Amino acid sequence: MQAEAMITDTDPEWLALLKIEVAKEGQSVSSVAARIGMPRPSLSLLVNGTYPARLDKVGNKYAAKVLGLLKDELHCPHLRKGISLEACRHHAGRPMSTNNPERMSQFMACRACPQNPISKPEGTTK
How high is the pLDDT of residue 3? Predict the structure, then answer.
C-alpha cells in the first residue's frame, strides 16, 4: 500500500519530509521506518494523519534523525525546523544580546541544546 503525500500547512517539516519519502516510487513504509529507526505501524499512522499522540512528542524523538537522513540538516528545537550545520554554528557562536529578546532566547536555547556544535569536540557534531 503506497501512502499519498498529503502534506498540510500544519505539518512540521520533518513530517512533510517523511510523507514525501514514503510516497516516492519504490519506497515502502517499512523501508523508510527501518532507515529512521521508527516502528512501521507508527510511521504508517503518521503519514496517514491518524497518529493518536501529540506530534511534538514524536518530533522530539525522530525529527533530528529524519532531517539528518533525508535533508542533511540538524533539527533546531528552538526554531522547530531543520537548519544547516553552518547555521547552527552561527547561532551557537553568536554573543549574548540583552537588547534583542529573540536573539537572547536563541542564545539560551543554544546553550542548553545537546546538538550545540560549539560545546562539542571537533568531528563529533552529528
Answer: 42
